[in-house]
Amino acid sequence: MSGEDFDALDRGDNDGQKSDKMFTLKKWNAVAMWSWDVECDTCAICRVQVMDACLRCQGESKKDSYGKQDCVVVWGECNHSFHFCCMSLWVKQNNRCPLCQQEWSIQRMGK
Amino acid sequence: MSLKPRNVDFTETWTHLKETVAGVVGLRAVERSVWNTRFSDVYALCVAHPEPLADRLYDETKSFLEEHVAGLLARVRGSSSLENNDHNDGLLTRYVTAWREYSQGVAYLNSLYSYLNLQHVKRQKVSDAEIIYGSAATVSCPENDARQLEVGELGLEIWERVLVRPLSTALTGRIVSALCSARDSTPDPALATTLKEAIHSTVQVRAFRVRAPLQLYQQLVLEPYLAAAGAAHARMAAALLAAGDVAHYTRLALQQLEREVSLGARFLDASSAEQVRACYERAAVAAHLPALHATVDKLMRDAATDERDGQERRDDLRRMYVLLRPLGGAALRPLVDAAHAQATADGHALLAQPHNKDEAHTHFVNAMLTLHGKYSKLFADVFGGAQAFIGALDKACSAVVNFRGPTDSCARAPELLARYCDCLLRKRGGGGGGSGETDVDEKLSAAIVVFKYVDDKDVFQKYYARALARRLIHQLSASMEQEEAMINRLKAACGYEFTNKLHRMFTDVAVSADLNAKFQQHLRDTNASTTPGFSIQVLQAGAWPLGGAMAPLAPPQQLERPARLFEAFYRASFSGRRLAWLHHLCTGELRTRYTPRVCHLSATTPQCALLLSFETVDQWSARDLRDALQLGGDAWWRHLRPLLDAALLLAEGDVGAGDGGGEPAPDATLALNLAFSCKRTKLRLTCANAPSHQGAATAGAGAGANAGAGADSGESATHCDDDRKMYLQAAIVRIMKQRKVLRHTELIQEVVSQARGSFAPSVAMIKKCIEALIDKQYLERAPAALDTYSYLA
Ligand SMILES: [Zn+2]
Ligand SMILES: [Zn+2]
Ligand SMILES: [Zn+2]
């Protein structure tokens, strides 16, 4: 990280210009956490937390040497959400949301 | 000679034949022409007309041989007294001389009688298979009916019956006596040859037999010899043990065993080797087991000392093992138990050695590695790495590693081992360094040796995950390669599930680096002003052991802009994601501008916010400031206190001291200490960890300080139970989803085997989890069958 100052963003204040500022913010190492924007954090089909890979993917990545998972979440028009893997299998048998029985149609996919 | 059957005068023919037979059996020279004539005579008698004379010839030959052997018997016996057992009285020599002559002669005779053997005897013989498999059960064996023996065999049978039987006691006595004296001193070569031939004659004389060919040898030689030898071995062993020197006994016993085995190999039939050895082991070792077992504890203790004569003591112990090993598991048990007890005691002693409390983790791991290394080597050296002893060492290590003192609520191994790894994986602060990278790799590999013995691997995993989170978030790792290698070692030891979350944490860091680069690029592309001092880590929820996460905070103005820019960038890059700032983990670096000497302060975001509040205001009411920053509960004091301790801020009145989240007094005030000075140019402001009720320990902002690792030891145990229940419930659901219907005992077994890598669950806990899942309607008791559960989809 370069030594450039944060407040270079806020024009009109930098090192060259003596001001009565008490502190200069040099660096900010931020930490944030992401999670799927879901109402219920458990997938009703496989009963695993949506932040974790679905049961099937967990089983498969056991064989993988690396735990890299690509098991995303899918939202229906009804706003219910499931693992995409789980829902893909589900709709083959029954094209309704397992929670509200509305006809299933995808509203958006997690990425 | 004519092949045509004809009349033959038996008496006349036999008279000539008999003369030649006597010559052949007595090994006198017989002319070729005479031999040929007699050979034809045998043929002529067998095919004689009108009546074959084979039977008569056979009977006459038998009578002749019986008479001949009776003559030999008198010769062999000579003037010897059959009652004494003096093997030097010439009887053995005469016996062997007669045997050599007779056995050779009878072999020639067998050729002379070839035609009779072939045509007359063979036809009556029953096949071996018929005898062995019993279809000829009623047909007698050849040895029981002389008519069915070839002439050579007949001759041997007569030798045994007429000569050996009457002499059996005398022969046995002399053979046994000769063998016993050969044990103590090498016999002269002539006697040795005689003895050997005499013994082998008892085998050869029955060699043609289908059943029990060694019976005569066993009765005459082996059994009497083993009886005598056994008694001698027992006497010797008793005398040695009575002298009380076990080391001397083991040395001598092994020598004698060797001597006994080679004596047997030299004189006895090859088939007896095992019996000779077993006889010795029975008489000299097995019979004295209690006395030997009474010494193994001391032998083991002595062998484990590092003193100068340790090698000799190890040799003693090795000899004891070699003596006991053939006697099987029960005889070896006390030795295995002693090995286990010694290693266990030594392990506890090593752990109890005085050490610096701050280095408890290093002491613990080093002690365990010393223990494991020492006894692995000892047991490989002394016991050839036999499985029973490796098992004893494993049991001992496991007992020592998981030892709980009377006052400990849980074993300390998980915590100490995790701390050991943490210290190795951290960047070493300047100066102290010295251990190179390969050294660290070796130490981490060695830590796995200890890790394998830890029972509560799940507890270790928690400590490890917390320390890893601290290292990753605060960039304290010495090397990402080492971090990854260690996770892979743990995975190799415990499996994917164990390290899944560690892997995800590790991956988040790599993804974040990429994300930072893309964000900066995005800012350049959109001509937004760049934010070089800004870096971010985006962690996935669920993988990181972070508690007290989303405490509300009004971030300082200066941070709002980059945060908002990043949020927008993130939203555009992904979809369906929620982003939350973990302010208590964010660190900022502030530079003082009001002090004579510039000082760089590393601080948490709330601390930055606190300090930056004094940009425009010299003095705050403590209560107002707290409310402005929305630092509720104990967060206020945790973040504030280090600023007061460092004398950056000055307090007037009660500003809310106390870990319980004390309320600032209404008139309490805070002011910036304008006279602040610091000897160092960098100051890292630590922050106490959030207490446990905020969730499984924050990866505290106690960056840099080791304090974090030790502080949260108690709470881990209490949280562990809940996590184990969660783990078991997940395992039960997984199993039941796959199996649909399962009996209670099978389910318990499967759950136990799945959990084995992490911890040993109690059946009671598994039962509770099953009940909980029934309540939650994941499972039900199968209506039809007792003790069976079925999965509810
Ligand atoms: Zn699912
Ligand atoms: Zn999946
Ligand atoms: Zn729905």
From TrEMBL, chain A:
Pfam families: zf-rbx1 (PF12678)
Reaction(s) the record says it catalyses: S-[NEDD8-protein]-yl-[E2 NEDD8-conjugating enzyme]-L-cysteine + [cullin]-L-lysine = [E2 NEDD8-conjugating enzyme]-L-cysteine + N(6)-[NEDD8-protein]-yl-[cullin]-L-lysine; S-ubiquitinyl-[E2 ubiquitin-conjugating enzyme]-L-cysteine + [acceptor protein]-L-lysine = [E2 ubiquitin-conjugating enzyme]-L-cysteine + N(6)-ubiquitinyl-[acceptor protein]-L-lysine
Gene3D superfamilies recorded: Zinc/RING finger domain, C3HC4 (zinc finger)
Subunit structure: Catalytic component of multiple cullin-5-RING E3 ubiquitin-protein ligase complexes (ECS complexes, also named CRL5 complexes) composed of CUL5, Elongin BC (ELOB and ELOC), RNF7/RBX2 and a variable SOCS box domain-containing protein as substrate-specific recognition component. Also interacts (with lower preference) with CUL1, CUL2, CUL3, CUL4A and CUL4B; additional evidence is however required to confirm this result in vivo. Interacts with UBE2F. Interacts with CSNK2B, the interaction is not affected by phosphorylation by CK2.
Record keywords: Acetylation, Cytoplasm, Metal-binding, Nucleus, Transferase, Ubl conjugation pathway, Zinc, Zinc-finger
Organism whose genome encodes this protein: Arctia plantaginis (Wood tiger moth)
A GO cellular-component term linked to this record: cytosol
Listed InterPro entries: RING-box_E3_Ubiquitin_Ligase, Znf_RING, Znf_RING/FYVE/PHD, Znf_RING_H2
Major place of residence: cytoplasm
Descriptive protein name: RING-box protein 2
Localization terms from the record: Cytoplasm; Nucleus
Annotated EC: 2.3.2.27, 2.3.2.32
MF terms in GO: NEDD8 ligase activity; ubiquitin protein ligase activity; zinc ion binding
Pathway in which the depicted protein is active: Protein modification; protein ubiquitination
Start and end residues of each RING-type domain: 54-101
BP GO terms, sorted: intracellular signal transduction; proteasome-mediated ubiquitin-dependent protein catabolic process
Family membership noted in the UniProt record: Belongs to the RING-box family.
Automatic annotation (TrEMBL), chain B:
Keyword Phosphoprotein assigned: yes
Species for this entry: Arctia plantaginis (Wood tiger moth)
Name this protein carries in UniProt: Cullin family profile domain-containing protein
Cullin family profile domain location: 412-644
Top-rank taxon: Eukaryota
Gene3D superfamilies on file: Cullin Repeats (1.20.1310.10), Cullin, Chain C, Domain 2 (3.30.230.130), Winged helix-like DNA-binding domain superfamily/Winged helix DNA-binding domain (1.10.10.10)
GO molecular function: ubiquitin protein ligase binding
Family: Belongs to the cullin family.
